[in-house]
Amino acid sequence: MLTFKRLGDTELRTLVRGVSRFAAFCCVSAMVVFIAGCPGTVTAPCTTNADCDDGNACTDDVCDVDLAICASTPIDCPDGETCVDGVCVATCQADADCDDSLLCTNDACTYGACDNAPVTCEAGVCNPDDGQCIGCFEDANCDDGDACTGAETCVDNACVDGTPVVCADGEVCNADGACVATCTDDAGCDDGDACNGDETCVDGACASGTLLDCDDGIDCTDDACANDVCSNTDNCTAGTCNTDTGECDIMACTSGTECDDGNDCTDDSCEGGACVNANNTDACDDTDACTTGDACADGVCAGTATDCGTQTCDPVTGNCVDCSDDADCDDGIECTVDICNAGTCENTDSDPRCNDGLFCTGTETCDPNSEDADVEGCVASGDPCDPLSFTPICEERTESCSACILNADCDDGVACTDDSCDEVNDVVVNTVNDANCNITSLVDTAGDAIERYVYNPYGGPTIYDSTWGSTRSTSSYDNTLRFAGYRYDAETGLYLARNRFLHAELGNWLRRDPIGYAGGDLNLYGYVGGDPENSVDPEGLIAPIIIAILFGAAFGGTT
To answer: How far apart are CA 468 and CA 507, in angstroms?
Structure first.
């Protein structure tokens, strides 16, 4: 039987401190304590961190010396990465996730981590441009590491041997690719120059010695070795070398010539072994042609700017001119050419700059002084087509003046004509009707007939020219409005009156009247009751309209 004991305040605080201390390890002695979010695995015992190495590079292994307990915590990698061999790498699910865009690596996803291993070539190297194995792609790929075989090169992806070093008798090629004397001991290699150091005999070849170190550590001296002796020469161009500081003491002098600072506005002298460069007020030349009265002040040569008023100073001659370059002549008018000619501005009107490339705006000229000029200074002559001529309409597409473009351009204001535009022949066509609504002729804008029509009683057409001198088989103007205002099909010889076709030779409709006997004719194929000279049927389905009645209603009387 289990017995539970109520904890006092002191016991409770002790337990809380214990849990807090062991929360990182999740284990206390032999009793396992479960704590949500336990950071790692706990083992025991230990005295140092080395005792806690679990062999996993992806964990941090530490030893709590006080408790002699090991804790191994996983390395915390950023989102999207995982630990592999102690390094955080990108996680993956497929090889495609590991593409590093390098053609000479094999990109693979292994156990959730990317592996980008270099491509291994059995011979040659991997070409980074296409990922293929080739002999070489640069000279460095061909270097055999032997300086005595010459410099190998890469030509057309293949290595080409270099030119071997050829040494004279008694010499051999050393590791540096230089010919040196053969030897049996160091004495045979001594060149007698101490500056070259002590030469030695190595594997039957003389090896250079270590150059004699002549550096004195002073920056203002040039250090060299000659004739077995080191020399340290003062390299100061002004003053002398201070061996204590390593700097040139430019204040040291013996005459004023040593103190020349190259400034005409200072008087240079040597006083008490020190250079003095005192400012003067001598006349000088500041090399600016647009200044006068050049003089020294505070060690600087400067003059007074030439006052040219509204003009500008030519930097070459120093003369006052209207301009020194084209930019000075810009008059702000787009259609003028602005240039500076020998100091004088010239602003010339340029008509080509006004050309808008449009035929219907007329000819453009540059006239900035005209009251009709636009903001660019251009004046357009306007529509080139005479409104009182037979071709008053400007057509941009053809760059020409036309009689018409749209049917609306052809309205002659006469109710008894049908008006249209013949674009092919570039003429206005007005069809003239008689009392039976027959189209009797086509007229142009001058009212002159250009084509005439005559019909038999049921509409059989004959087409004449304007003078009645000859006939035509078809309309020269593609006119289809003919007998009674019906549309005529030249191929079939039929008229369309909206609801039925009329056969001009038979004098009958080709189908029964759609409204039956309501049309008032017992012959359902008959045309206007057999009286085409006095009646019309514009819909092809109503009772014949007597022309006298129709025109009497229209004009207030009867005929």
So the answer is: 26
